[in-house]
Structures are given as structure tokens and as C-alpha cells.
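Figure S7 source data.
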Amino acid sequence: MASRDSVHIAPPDGKLGVLTPGIGAVTSTFIAGVESIRAGWALPIGSLSQMATVRLGKRTEGRSPKIKDFVPLAGLDDLVFGGWDIFEDSAYEAGLKAGVLERSHLDRVKDRLSAVKPMKAVFDPEYVRRIHGPNVKHGGTKMDKAHMLMEDIDTFQKTSGASRLVMIWCGSTEVFHKPSHVHQSLKDFESGLQKDDPEIAPSQVYAYAALKKGVPFANGAPNLTVDIPAMMELAREQQAPIAGKDYKTGQTFMKTLIAPGLKARMLGLTGWFSTNILGNRDGEVLEDPGSFKTKEESKLSVLEYILQPELYPQLYKDFHHAVRINYYPPRGDAKEGWDNIDIFGWLGYPMQIKIDFLCRDSILAAPLVLDLALFMDLAKRAGMRGVQEWLSFYFKSPMTAPGLYPEHDVFIQLMKLKNTLRWMRGEDLITHLGLEYYD
Ligand SMILES: NC(=O)c1ccc[n+]([C@@H]2O[C@H](COP(=O)([O-])OP(=O)(O)OC[C@H]3O[C@@H](n4cnc5c(N)ncnc54)[C@H](O)[C@@H]3O)[C@@H](O)[C@H]2O)c1
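C-alpha cells for the predicted nicotinamide-adenine-dinucleotide complex:
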């Protein structure tokens, strides 16, 4: 029973179109997965929106509905897919090339995957250097290209019959750029689009097009994209939710599990060395120092924020933290990530933790794309706009309001997410105080 007024949430009537710039390993694995689940061959493992429950009220009440039964999410049967890529491969062909899923699994949903054909991309080789493809838009300024994308969005909506849309960036990691003058206000950004300002990345042209149409935009890569004042302004103006950056999978996910545990027990850290080998297209793009720098920044920030060396200098001041990524083609998408963690305990005695995570990047990322699509659509229908901090759970570098530091601890992020859902439905927020059971 709800204890206060709930937020008005428009019902998820009709189809939800999920638009992805980038139809590579993550996107093809995501779509193939949704189609397989829809057909009854697979379970949505790794998806909080589909599998997790949310406790309501006191522990004695025994109320723990599934999230998907508690908040009005779009159903998997109502999802339709579209996207852009610089290559002409359909989602089926992209899935075969990515080599994440076995051919026999892709073949079971071949018709559905083959129907997802990429629209022509907005691409700039200055931003993604190692790959070149034929399926790109030519001519015009960046503003013209934004309008071409808006036409693509309209055409997709008409042909797919979608009543609502979300856009999730699943394209390659762009080279490292700091926010510049053109990113500071919507006015500057729009004049930059007209003048073809080199500081405006392709991902920002997509984001601009989506937000202008009021379409929520989430960023699965570490590039700046919507994490700039101009996009925050546009999102507020157009009543659109935004979120990012960089899916929290693999090694960083492990970091955000372990580091809060070390800090909770007041164990010190002298160093954390992380190295990876991977052989997919993402790995190839990350061979470029510019793209690697974007990824490195995203991966490095996590420990500083979790461990708070300024509050605990005796435990965490000056720890060494290095992250390496090596492109190693034989591995394909089956990445291997090693961590060597040097810690110290009682009386300063040193100890070591070693992790060898033989993970599958896109298998970990696909359920995050699904959850983000459904939750961004929910946020839009609930009238939420601008940065969706409650979705920090999904990101390595969560976006926040200017001046706020991001929350990286995955368990605090989970609490924030579930409390936001409780708040939407007018349920009591859970503080975990628990004293009421002992009165
Ligand atoms: N898989 C994971 O666990 C994970 C985790 C965090 C972040 N990411 C990020 O997600 C993104 C996708 O990863 P992936 O493994 O699918 O990579 P991928 O290389 O297989 O796919 C990316 C696709 O984007 C396309 N592309 C590049 N620039 C584009 C543009 N301007 N417009 C349209 N398409 C464009 C490429 O041609 C490619 O097909 C990458 O940025 C990656 O860093 C992935």
C-alpha cells in the first residue's frame, strides 16, 4: 500500500523504439538476446529490470514484487530496434563478425536480426581513428547532419510504428576531448554546429538530434557526449532524460565490488594494477592513444572516489593505480582482465589479492542496454528530465549535476535506484535503520 502520493507515470502504450548509434558487438548481442528471450529460448540473466525484486515496506510485510511488476515498464514484446553504423552489416551480420554469440544462436533469430539494417552514420575519422566504413552521411555542416539524423528518427518512428523512442550510444569510443567553449551553453553549441566546430564530436550530433526530438539519450561509452552544460540545458528544455557514461562491466565492475569492501573494513591500499587483453573491434579502436585516454580516465576515477584518500590519508593517500588495455586479436570478445591488488592490514602488514576475470564483455553489457532503454523510457513517462543520477548503477563514470561528485559504490547505487522506484510509486524509502523491529 502506497504511503504517499506517487508520481504520475504515463502508461507504456504502444511500441518502444530503441535506437543505437553503433551496431557492433554490444548492440547485436543485446538485440539477439531480447529476441531469444521473447521467443522463450533464454532468460534475461543480468537484467535488473527483468529479474530483480524490490522490497516494499517493513521486512515483516513480505512484499517483494519484481521490478517489472512494480513500475510500468515497456514489455519486451513491445521493443523495436533501429540504428546507425559506418558499416552496412545488418545486426545479424554484425553479430556473426563480432563472434560473441554462437552462429546457431544467431540463426534462431536470424530474420529479426537481418531486418535491423544500419542507417548512414555521422562519422568523423578524427574522433574514431582505426576504422573506416562506407555507410556515412556526406556533405553539409554538423547542423545539417543533425537534421538528417532527425529525419532518420522520424522515418524510423513511422516505419516501425513506435509510439516512443530512446537512444543509447553503442558506438566506438571517441578520442579524449575536454569540454571546450562550444560545450558551455546551448547557444554556443548550436552556433558551433552551424560553423562545423571541430570540438563537436559525432556522438554529440546524435545526442543533439535525439534531445531536440525529446528522445532520452544514454551514453554507453566514455566519451563526453551529453556530459556538458549545453546538453544538460537542452535536455531540460526538451523534457528529456540523459544518462552516462560508459557501461560498468568487467574489470571496473569488479573494482566497484571490492574497493567498497576494503574501505568498509578500513584496510589500506598501496597499489592496484589492472591489465586486459581483448581482441574485438572495441579493442582495436582502443589501440588508438586518443580513444584509450578517454577509457583510461573513465576507469581510473573510480578508486579515488570510492576510497576518499582525503578523508583517509593513512590508508589511501598516494596508492598506485594503473590500467592497461592490450589489443590481442586471438581473444575476440572473450576478454581476460587481471588485477593485482596490494593491500595492508593490522600493523601495516601487507597482503595481496589477485583476480583473473575471464569475462565476455558484450554478454555483461547487453542486459545493461536493455535496462537503460526501459528505465530511460520510464523516466521520460514519469516527467523526469536532465541527468538521471539514479541510473549511476550502470556506469563507470556516472553523470551528476555540476558540482556534485559521482557515487561509484555499486551497492549505494543500487539502493539509490530502488529508492527512486519506491519514490515513483509513493512507497516508503528504505533507510536500513531497522530500529523499529526492536521497539
Ligand atoms: N562491452 C562492454 O562491456 C563495454 C563496456 C563499456 C563500454 N563499452 C563501449 O560500448 C561501445 C560499443 O562496444 P562494442 O564492443 O559493441 O564495440 P564495437 O566496435 O563492436 O561496435 C561499435 C560500433 O560503432 C560503430 N561506430 C563508430 N563510430 C560510429 C558513428 N559515429 N556512428 C555510428 N556508428 C559508429 C562501429 O563501426 C562499430 O560497428 C564502445 O564504445 C565500448 O567502449 C562496452
